[in-house]
Each structure stands twice: as structure tokens, then as C-alpha cells.
Amino acid sequence: MIIRREMAEDTAAIRQVIRAAFGGDDEADLVDRLRADGDLMLSLVADQDGQVVGHVGFSRLSITDGSQSTPGVSLAPVAVLPEKQRKGVGRALIEAGHDQLRHAGEMVVFVLGDPAYYSRFGYSADGTSAFDCAYVGPYFQWLRLSPLAPLAGTIAYAPAFGGSG
Ligand SMILES: CC(C)(COP(=O)(O)OP(=O)(O)OC[C@H]1O[C@@H](n2cnc3c(N)ncnc32)[C@H](O)[C@@H]1OP(=O)(O)O)[C@@H](O)C(=O)NCCC(=O)NCCS
């Protein structure tokens, strides 16, 4: 299996993987909208012998504190074909994403999801209540990639999220 950036010809397969993992269209539609809007800053696929078996998307968000606005990243969604789950594909996708984001100088990643899963990658909800965001709560977690990441502010997600962030 290799983890690589999505290519134009992967979009249908990515949709299929996301629909199979989530059992519906919502998350696949989100990825399509993010891509169409140019907000899908990093989109990785797990490619097993030419078959896309997993996908993770990262999109741009902004953190505004007073007159200071800082770019951040949202991890959403991550999906693995049901028959390929629990084999480390999700981990490989998320860790490759973090490596690339770190390399690109990104400072912070936010995720909305099960803490039992995301804590494996260093995400925590500790300190996130200092942010003004509709998602704040136990499922709203962050991973600081840099000590310079902001500690508070208003978070604005990409428009594809529907303005609920
Ligand atoms: C979540 C998901 C991407 C993980 O992919 P994966 O390839 O199975 O993940 P890994 O193999 O790296 O890790 C699997 C481990 O995570 C655990 N895990 C998976 N989903 C979990 C969850 N929601 N909460 C807690 N643990 C979870 C599994 O129990 C497994 O644990 P084990 O290694 O101790 O057996 C995959 O299960 C999936 O596509 N789920 C449906 C879509 C979804 O819920 N996405 C996340 C929300 S954005």
C-alpha cells in the first residue's frame, strides 16, 4: 500500500470509499464541495495495487483573535473501505497527512471526532474551549504542530462546511 496525493482520476473512487465508510452521501459531498471551492488543501489516498481503499482530506480554516488572523487546518473526513478497516490504513493516512502539514509549516490541526481514536495521534480537547467555534465540546480536538499556534480565537471553517463552524 502506498499513501499518495489524490489525482484527477481518483475522484470517483474517493467518493465510493467515503460513501461506503459513512453509509451516505454527506461526507462525499463535503469533499467534492471542498475540492470545487479550492479549499481541499491536502487530499491523500491509500492505494493498494491501484485500488483506492482509503482517503483523508484536510482543508483550510482561519483563526481570528482581535486583528490577528492565523491559518489553521481541519482534518475531515477520513474514510477507509469497511473491508479494509483495522489494518492500519487510517493511521497511515493521518500520519502521512501530519508529516506533510508539518513539512509545509502548518501550525495546528482541528478535528471533530471520537477522542478514543484521535488521541492515538496526539489530538486532545484540552484547551479547545478557548476557541469560539460551534463544534466546541469533547469531540472537538486539536493537534498543535508548532508552539507558535494560537491559543484562542474565532474559528472559521471553509464555506463547504455550511457555516456551522
Ligand atoms: C475511522 C476509520 C477511518 C479508521 O480507519 P482504520 O483503517 O480502520 O484505522 P486503523 O486501522 O489505523 O485503526 C483502527 C483502530 O482504530 C479503532 N477505531 C476505529 N474507529 C474508531 C472510533 N470511531 N473510535 C475509537 N476507535 C476507533 C479500531 O477499533 C482499531 O483499534 P485496534 O487497532 O485497537 O483494533 C475507519 O474506521 C472508517 O472509515 N470509519 C467510518 C468513517 C468514520 O467514522 N470516519 C471518522 C470520522 S471523520
How many helices? The count is: 4
Strand proportion, as a percent range, falls in 25-35%
| The CATH fourth-level homologous superfamily | Gcn5-related N-acetyltransferase (GNAT)
How many individual β-strands? 8
The largest sheet, given as strand count, sense and whether it forms a barrel, is: 8 strands, mixed
**Shape by Cα distribution:** globular
**Tally of structural domains:** 1
What is the CATH architecture annotation? 3-Layer(aba) Sandwich
Structural class: alpha+beta
The oligomeric state is: single chain
Q: Could you estimate the helical fraction of the residues in percent? A: 25-40%
Task: Give the topology.
Elements lengths: L1 E4 L5 H12 L3 H11 L3 E9 L2 E15 L2 E13 L8 H15 L4 E5 L2 H4 L12 E2 L7 E5 L8 E4 L9
Parallel strand pairs: 4-5, 6-8
Antiparallel strand pairs: 1-2, 2-3, 3-4, 3-8, 5-7
Bound molecules: coenzyme A (COA).
Which structural traits does this protein have?
4 helices, Aminopeptidase, alpha+beta, binds coenzyme A, 8 strands, single chain, globular, 165 residues, 8-stranded mixed beta sheet
Short description:
The chain is of the alpha+beta class and 165 residues long. 25% of the residues lie in helices and 35% in strands. The protein has four helices and eight strands.
Task: Describe the model.
By secondary structure, the chain is α+β, with helices and mostly antiparallel strands. The protein has a single domain, classed as Aminopeptidase, CATH 3.40.630. Helices cover about 25% and strands about 35% of the residues. The protein contains four helices and eight strands; from the N terminus they run βααβββαβαβββ. Strands 1, 2, 3, 4, 5, 6, 7 and 8 form an eight-stranded mixed sheet that branches. β3 and β4 form a beta hairpin. α1 packs antiparallel against α2. It is globular. The termini are far apart. The model has no long low-confidence stretch (mean pLDDT about 95). Bound molecules: coenzyme A. The site of coenzyme A (COA) has 18 residues, from α1, β4, α3 and α4. The site of coenzyme A has 18 residues, from α1, β4, α3 and α4.
